[in-house]
Amino acid sequence: MVTPGITGRIRPTKVKKRENLQKRKRDDVDVEKLEQAVQQLDPKNGSYKDFTDLPLSEPTKQGLKSSHFAVMTDVQAKAIPLALQGHDILGAAKTGSGKTLSFIIPVLENLYRLQHVGPDAGLGALILSPTRELAIQIFDVLRKIGRHGHMFAAGLLIGGKSLQDEREALAKMNILVATPGRMLQHLSQTAAFSVDDLKMLVLDEADRILDMGFQHDVDAIVEYLPKERQTLLFSATQSKKVSDLARLSLHDPEYVSVHAQDESATPKGLTQNYIVCPLEEKMDTLWSFIQASKKSKILCFFSSAKTVRFVYESFRHMQPGIPLLHIHGRQKQGARLDTTAKFSAAKHSCLFATDVAARGLDFPAVDFVIQVDCPDDVDTYIHRVGRTARYNREGRGVLFLAPSEEEGMLKRLEAKKVPVEMINVRQKKRQSIKDQLQNMCFQDPALKYLGQKAFMTHVKSIYLQKDKKVFKLKEYDLEAYAASLGLPGTPRIKFMKDDNSRQKKQASRQTIDVSDSSDAEEVAKAEKPVRTKYDRMFERKNQDVLAEHYKKLVRDGPDGETPADVFTGASAADGGDEDFMAVKRRIPADDEEEASATMGTGDARVASGGRLVHVAGASQPLVIDSNRREKLLQSKKKLTRLMDKGKRLVYDEEGNPHEVYELEDEAQYRAKGLPEEQRQKFIETAREVVQNADVEDKAAAKAKRKDKLRKRKERERNEMAEGDADAGVELPDPGEDLLANFRADAEYTDEDDEEQQQEPSKKAKKWFESEDEDEEKTQKRKKAKAAHRVEEPETLEDIEALAAGLLG
Ligand SMILES: Nc1ncnc2c1ncn2[C@@H]1O[C@H](COP(=O)(O)OP(=O)(O)OP(=O)(O)O)[C@@H](O)[C@H]1O
Q1: How far is the CA of 88 from the centre of ligand 1 (A)?
Q2: What is the 3-state secondary structure (H, E, C) of 682-711?
Q3: Alpha-carbon 95 to chain mean position
Q4: Which residue among 101, 145, 237, 270 is best mutated to probe the pocket of ligand 1, counting the most ligand atoms within 8 A of its Cβ?
Q5: Of 137, 405, 750, 802, which alpha carbon lies 20 to 30 A from 710's?
Q6: Is the CB of 91 under 6 A from ligand 1?
Q7: Pocket lining: 390 vs ligand 1, CB cutoff 6 Å
Q8: Ligand 1 centroid from CA 330, angstroms
């Protein structure tokens, strides 16, 4: 979206021209004076407190005044004078300390003094932001400060609009706030967009923009920009990596670090606590916390979009008594903007978010920031917690740490001067929502599926964490965690396969130990959990829903291993949650035999309490363990699903049935010799069969012809004997094939056949035809053939000519 100029009120052209001329004269004088004053600034003496202490243009002063900004924050007082003098800056200051104005004011002022304004001046300053929300926020501040008389055209470039619309506006822009991806897209695709005159490049949340995710885009953007420019980098957590500075070609940058001498890296008004909370208790604790803080504005951070969605959807159904919102990177831009606007305006609300909302966003008056999932690192912690206690206000951050995360994370926080204090959860006030969640997952397969996805992404994110001293996957009770989300089992995760196979080996060893003992069976029985009516209902409810996804998620291997085994190392003898997760199905034939053997024939009862019923046409019996399945027997249509599908058979000459493809196994095939030899043998045999058949056919045809000849001669003899007067003329037998006669006298060959195909054989002259007639007919036939050949269009021209009637 490109928003046209900040200013630009519409007035009659003549008046406007005169005013502009006067203004330019004023500005020239103003600019000269300002330039001198800026050069005389002494940025290091620290005596500048208010904005009015700085040589700023009238429009900027007015903008600041109308926004009620009077006293500068620390970072502003240090950074703005340096930036006004044109220095490159590497600025690090706490969250909410006013870094935005520290670059907005120099951008407006430096371009103003250069008179880099108007459509012909081109792009003078580019401000890059890692997220769209932050870019919008920066643009709003720019607009607020710049709307009182500055003539710059400023735009917001964050995608979401057609490239063409943006293209047209881009060429006129003097200041752009953009996300790296969209900016690069225009630099590489919009021919008229020139950045050759760019004077300033600003990176907000610089450490984020310079990290891996944006590396390619930012490097490519910098390639387009002129080397001679001023560069400003700002962030709450700033690294001074030489490589990063080299990438941006900073010239002797000034380090403006406000929290270096400070005791802590986080704002003074911020109270920071942590609680030790196992993964499986997080949902209960969070719910209880929200219930106890309904009159607050709360921001909760999670590690994945899936978790955000699951918690949002499930809590919403439980009617928490406080408006819930959620934001994550997988939402559409409109939805994200809507949420940020709603949360900004809300007095009491709870926003569930991923780290997309962790940086820069200036939500007013947030009371609590709850980090439900441990942040990747201390920098992320600082940015997240910085959404509260902004600009001298109070706020509170609570970090949930699993017992295994506590030691490692606390060490890292301490190293970066982040003071956190442990508090305890009042157990009496903690409500358990496990049953409610379980019930909701049971009622709503979509929610269950979301829960399964949330579980998997969360586990995966722990697995992928770089800091293995904090995130130790094996230390979490994942089975209990899955249950705490209301899931009917622990979803299976592919990347755990290796660990799993190791555990399987251990499990089998343990099984052997148990089976050695004389009480093995009793042990297994005793440890098998009792299945209630509810369990059975749950299994039925879930067996058909989202079958494909479900199969992927839930282990259903031939070894009967349960999902729980994957993570907890429970042995097969434990029984685990096998029954809880198992989906009832037809008993395989082998098992049926076993069942019959142990239970006796007749009314075979299945171990789980079901009844076996044989369905006509089905090769395997059905387990009837509920009214629902009983009913199934009454529906013919449904039963067809259980029936065996018919096989397609072909019959040989002896009438024996064969399957369409009868394949011998490899060993049998190889025993017969090499493939090439087999092929040759097959060809020879086939040839022999064909030759024999040919000889037989020929002999039969010859015999037939001889017989005919014999019959005819006999008939002739009889006729002669009767003394027929017309015996001089030989009349053919009506219907007798003359060609057959002709062939009877010659040896039949393949060549003959070929000839016949090419040129139909000259028919034997009929008794009433003369030699001349014959010749005439041949000529006619040749002509007709020639004409026919021309009539067949062969080329495009023929077809066209045919269509034009030329050949017709
Ligand atoms: N000089 C000032 N006087 C009064 N309020 C100010 C001043 N400077 C900034 N603020 C206010 O302080 C709040 C935080 O400012 P800003 O968003 O610039 O912080 P930040 O340092 O960029 O934070 P973050 O690191 O989280 O991005 C804003 O609401 C802003 O309006």
Answers
A1: 21
A2: HHHHHHHHHHHHHHHHHHHHHHHHHHHHHH
A3: 33
A4: 101
A5: 750
A6: no
A7: yes
A8: 28
Radius of gyration over every alpha carbon of the chain, rounded to an integer in angstroms: 45
Residue whose Cα lies nearest atom 1 of ligand 1: it is: 72
Q: Rounded to the nearest 5°, which phi and psi values hold at 41? A: -65, 145
Atom of ligand 1 nearest to the CA of 141: 31
Residues near 188 by beta carbon (within 8 Å), at least 6 away in sequence: 220
Nearest CA to ligand 1 atom 23: 96
Q: Give the mutation target among 50, 52, 54, 73 for probing the ligand 1 site: most ligand atoms within 8 A of CB.
A: 73
Say yes or no: CB of residue 69 within 6 Å of ligand 1: yes
Owner of token pair 């620390």:
74
- Protein residue with least CA distance to atom 8, ligand 1: 98
Whether 288 lines ligand 1, by a CB cut-off of 6 Å, is: no
pLDDT of residue 311: 98
DSSP state of 795: S
By C-alpha distance, which of 467, 449, 468, 471 is closest to 459? Answer: 471
ipTM above 0.95, yes or no: yes
Q: What is the pLDDT of residue 752?
A: 33
Entry field: residues in the chain: 808
- 178 forms beta bridges with 128, 157
| DSSP-derived secondary structure letter, 50 | B
Report CA(658)–ligand 1 centroid distance (Å).
83
* Ligand 1 and 395: CB distance under 6 A: no
How far apart are the CA of 34 and the centre of ligand 1, in A? 26
Q: Is the CB of 375 under 6 A from ligand 1?
A: no
- Give CA–CA dist 563/565, Å, rounded: 5
Mean pLDDT computed over every residue of the chain: 76
What would the pLDDT profile of 224-255 be if each residue is shown by its tens digit? 999 999 999 999 987 777 677 778 888 888 99
pLDDT, tens digit, 9 for 90 and up, residues 287-346: 999 999 999 999 999 999 999 999 999 999 999 999 999 999 999 989 999 999 999 999
Q: What are the CA-CA distances from residue 277 to residues 232, 298, 304, 467, 698 (Å)?
A: 41, 19, 19, 19, 96
Residue 360 identity: G
Complete DSSP assignment for 436-467: HHHHHHHH-HHHHHHHHHHHHHHHHHHHH-S-
Tokens 């997309």: give the residue: 356
Task: Output the CA 362–ligand 1 centroid distance in Å.
Answer: 8
* Ligand 1 probe mutation, 64, 80, 100, most atoms within 8 A of CB: 100
- Please give the share of the chain, as a percent, with pLDDT higher than 90: 47
The residues near 126 (Cβ < 8 Å, ≥ 6 apart) are 175, 176, 178, 183, 195, 198, 200, 201, 202, 225
Pairing of strands 297-301, 254-257: unpaired
379 lines ligand 1 (CB under 6 A): no
CA of 96 to the centre of ligand 1 (A): 5
Axis crossing angle, helix 333-345 with helix 132-146, rounded to the nearest 10: 60
Q: Comparing C-alpha atoms, which of 563, 559, 582, 553 is closest to residue 505? A: 559
Q: What are phi and psi of 686, to 5 degrees?
A: -65, -40
How far is residue 675 CA from its own chain's centroid? 47
How high is the pLDDT of residue 231? Answer: 96
Q: Is the CB of 389 under 6 A from ligand 1?
A: no
Q: Point out the ligand 1 atom lying closest to the alpha carbon of residue 387.
A: 26
- Cβ atoms within 10 Å, residue 611: 15
Which domains does the chain carry?
29-257 (3.40.50.300), 270-484 (3.40.50.300), 509-538 (no CATH), 591-642 (no CATH)
Q: Which two tokens stand for residue 572?
A: 């097969």
For residue 128, how far is its CA from the centre of ligand 1 (angstroms)?
18
Retrieve residue 487's tokens. 């899931």
Residue whose CA lies nearest to ligand 1 atom number 25: 95
Count of CB atoms within 10 A of residue 346's CB? 18
